[in-house]
């Protein structure tokens, strides 16, 4: 008999005894309390809840009964009811670290992170040796992007319990978010060594390897995660992103589609699939995916910028302006969004607003070639040719073989009647890109003018 079977047999034996006790004394609160916990361990959540509710009715001032009822409600994701139960337990016994820590878990599940921190800290003040509370506090700090503090909290949990797999795995995630990929992988390795059948550990290590450009290693881990849990949408999405990086479009789309079948509200996968469609020039499908992201999360900056760019390319300028402006409100230093909005303003002949955006973008990223080039083009259209030449020259110092910039500098020289330089630039632009129709037409006009 293996250990799991032994535990199962013991639970069933306990259940039989509690059943007999309650049959003899139907008002035996402690027996309901104990049976409720066993039923929860057996996954029989509604029966567990009924027993714990009955225990609370029979002994309404017993803090433990309310706390255990809260725990069953928490595991059932009935969070508001769980809060009420834990709060009643804490009211009855203010110095109850387990109930405080468990209520903190509920606050964290509701993304009310500051209330969660307050409860975890209160629990640890009462009992600083609760490894699980240190770990939960670490995960809350991670959600608040206080990553160094999160790692310290996980360290405290692991000092108490060095084999705490959950804390190792979540510290690994925090390291990954700090882009310390070797430290993250070391934590996932240690956790998997301790317990090698947990799908999320393989998935998290696979995602870390993907971000570190170890695509083969990522595929190995993500395949293992999906083998352990075929319905694991997160792992399928990450594997799809890995296939996309490897250029395996068909496999990437298959994984993204399957992930979205399993989780139709999976914002990140819509974003990844949209980027793939965009790169395949399947722009209608890309636009639809970015719009789905924004239906789920109207403040997703990446989706706003990507949709804005597709709308700009389709000359839906007012809609593009709306998306870019919203993105900039949310992230005022987003140089790409600012520069792209500048392109829209220029397309609408709103040159001074375009210049303001290009100037702002270049304050954020002084060497972005395309923004230098776009500002130069705006100066050219305003007949400010010297300023235009300065920008085009700088852009070409950074990227000498840019056909678009060469053609625009050639047009600037042409406007200044410096025909030889204009001819050299336009000819060079056409050599680099024989399909540069704008450069061909411009050189044609140069020949007529010469």
TrEMBL record:
Q: Does the keyword Repeat apply?
A: yes
Family matches, as Gene3D superfamilies: Tetratricopeptide repeat domain
Q: Which GO terms describe its cellular component?
A: cell outer membrane
Q: Output one GO BP term.
A: receptor-mediated virion attachment to host cell
Keyword line: Repeat, TPR repeat
Q: What SUPFAM superfamilies is this protein classified in?
A: Protein prenylyltransferase, TPR-like
TPR repeat positions in this chain? 29-62, 63-96, 97-130, 131-164, 199-232, 233-266, 267-300, 301-334, 335-368, 369-402, 403-436
Domain of life of the source: Bacteria
Q: Which InterPro entries match?
A: TPR-like_helical_dom_sf, TPR_2, TPR_rpt, Ycf3
One Pfam entry name? TPR_2
Extract the PANTHER family matched here.
Answer: TETRATRICOPEPTIDE REPEAT PROTEIN 6, UDP-N-ACETYLGLUCOSAMINE--PEPTIDE N-ACETYLGLUCOSAMINYLTRANSFERASE SPINDLY-RELATED
What name does the UniProt record give this protein? TPR repeat-containing protein
């Amino acid at each position: 008999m293996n250990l799991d079977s032994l535990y199962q047999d013991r639970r069933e034996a306990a259940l039989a005894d509690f059943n007999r006790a309650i049959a003899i004394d139907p008002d035996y609160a402690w027996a309901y309390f104990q049976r409720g916990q066993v039923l929860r361990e057996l996954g029989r959540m509604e029966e567990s809840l009924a027993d714990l509710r009955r225990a609370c009715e029979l002994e309404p001032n017993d803090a433990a009964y309310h706390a255990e009822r809260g725990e069953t409600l928490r595991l059932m994701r009935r969070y508001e009811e769980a809060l009420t139960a834990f709060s009643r337990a804490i009211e009855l016994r203010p110095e109850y670290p387990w109930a405080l820590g468990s209520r903190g878990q509920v606050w964290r599940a509701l993304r009310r992170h500051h209330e969660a921190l307050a409860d975890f800290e209160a629990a640890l003040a009462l009992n600083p040796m609760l490894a699980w509370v240190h770990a939960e506090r670490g995960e809350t700090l991670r959600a608040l992007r206080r990553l160094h503090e999160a790692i310290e909290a996980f360290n405290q949990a692991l000092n108490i319990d060095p084999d705490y797999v959950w804390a190792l795995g979540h510290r690994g995630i925090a390291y990954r978010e700090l882009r310390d990929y070797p430290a993250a992988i070391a934590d996932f390795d240690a956790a998997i060594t301790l317990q090698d059948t947990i799908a999320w550990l393989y998935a998290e290590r696979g995602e870390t390897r993907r971000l570190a450009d170890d695509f083969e290693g990522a595929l190995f881990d993500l395949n293992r995660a999906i083998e352990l849990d075929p319905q694991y949408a997160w792992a399928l999405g990450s594997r799809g992103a890995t296939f996309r990086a490897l250029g395996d479009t068909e496999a990437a789309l298959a994984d993204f589609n399957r992930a979205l079948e399993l989780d139709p509200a999976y914002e990140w996968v819509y974003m990844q699939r949209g980027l793939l469609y965009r790169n395949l020039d399947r722009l209608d499908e890309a636009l639809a995916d970015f719009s789905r992201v924004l239906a789920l999360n109207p403040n997703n900056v990446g989706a706003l910028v990507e949709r804005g760019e597709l709308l700009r390319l389709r000359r839906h300028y007012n809609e593009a302006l709306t998306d870019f402006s919203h993105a900039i409100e949310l992230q005022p230093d987003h140089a790409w969004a600012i520069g792209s909005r500048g392109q829209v303003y220029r397309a609408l002949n709103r040159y001074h607003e375009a210049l303001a955006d290009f100037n702002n973008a270049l304050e954020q990223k002084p060497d972005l070639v395309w923004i230098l080039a776009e500002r130069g083009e705006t100066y050219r259209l305003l007949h400010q040719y010297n300023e235009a030449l300065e920008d085009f020259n700088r852009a070409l110092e950074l990227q000498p073989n840019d056909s678009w910039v060469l053609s625009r500098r050639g047009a600037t020289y042409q406007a200044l009647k410096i025909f030889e330089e204009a001819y050299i630039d336009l000819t060079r632009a056409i050599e680099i890109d024989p399909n540069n129709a704008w450069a061909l037409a411009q050189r044609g006009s140069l020949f007529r003018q010469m």
